[in-house]
Amino acid sequence: MAGGRLVSREAARHAHPAPVRRPRPRRTLALALAWAAGVAAALALIALAASATAASGGKAAEAAAVPDAVARRIRQALPATPIRSIRPAPVAGLYEVVAGRNVLYAEPTGRYLLVGHIYDLATATDVTAARKAEIAAARRIPQDSLPLAEAGVRYGEGPVRLVVFSDPTCPWCRRLNREVLRELEGVEVVELMYPARPGSRAVAEAVLCADDPAAALAAAFDGRRLAEASEACRERVAAGLDAALAAGRRHGITGTPTLVAPDGRVHEGFLTRPQLVAWMRAGDARRAVDGDPRPAAKGQAAGRTSTKEEKR
């Protein structure tokens, strides 16, 4: 009751409103400063990460030591596979390792190895497959760098020379020899004995020690037993076979047959006769290959392999 009057609670509330609470200026300023500091810290971290990425991918001199360390770790894990190159990968923080025919990825410490393909979703591209194709297209093995005189089996006549890393116990080498190489025209074939399979070295020694190595190789591929090489001859051909194996490791040969064209291009695996002829004609050589209408060099004949008549 006020002044003899009864006043309702609602009227009293309107008559004496509660004081309005205003924000404290100091507290608001503190919150704003804290928020600004957080944003600044986040931006600093982003800048630091960006600079680290740029340094790892863009400064070859600073990153050179990391690939060497990675390569050492990978060589320990893959002792039989020669590492051809190491370079920054398309993904920041990874390094591309080319080992033989494979493209692998390793992180800077060399502890982890990634085996698989990288896909660029923005362009729908298999980056790894494209890189493998690029490496294969650029790969070259100079024929003159191989020990052909010491470990090569020659047959056929022509202005074009084809070199084949061949294991005398390899089924695909046998098929290539019997179905393709013996039938080529205008090509000198040199099958470089590459006894990488268990037990094949004795056969390679017997082939190289035979009076007619080309006929002996054909006989071995036809499944006939060869005369065992003498100890003196085995010692004589040992250096050549060792040199062939060393050349294969140096050039990243991981299987047989592996073909080397006159211009050094490399193809791994079996080819049919039409495929082989097309592959050889696609190179830099401009000479007759297996009936090519382009004339052979003057004074050189386009003959058949020396074992064709024996096959018949």
Written description of the protein model:
The chain has 312 residues and is an alpha+beta fold. The protein has two domains: 60-138, Disulphide bond isomerase, DsbC/G, N-terminal (Nuclear Transport Factor 2, Chain: A); 143-311, Glutaredoxin (3-Layer(aba) Sandwich). Helix content is 43%, strand content 15%. It is built from twelve helices and eleven strands. It has helices at 9-15, 25-58, 60-63, 65-77, 127-138, 148-151, 171-179, 200-209, 213-221, 231-250, 273-281, 308-311; strands at 83-88, 95-99, 102-106, 113-114, 119-120, 125-126, 152-155, 160-166, 187-193, 258-260, 266-268. The strands form three sheets. Strands 7-9-8-10-11 form a five-stranded mixed sheet. It has a four-stranded antiparallel sheet with strand order 1-2-3-4, with helices on both faces. β10 (258-260) and β11 form a beta hairpin. α8 (200-209) runs antiparallel to α9 (213-221). The longest helix is centred in the N-terminal third of the chain and has 34 residues, at 25-58. It is globular, with a radius of gyration of 36 Å. The chain starts with 8 loop residues before the first helix and ends with a helix.
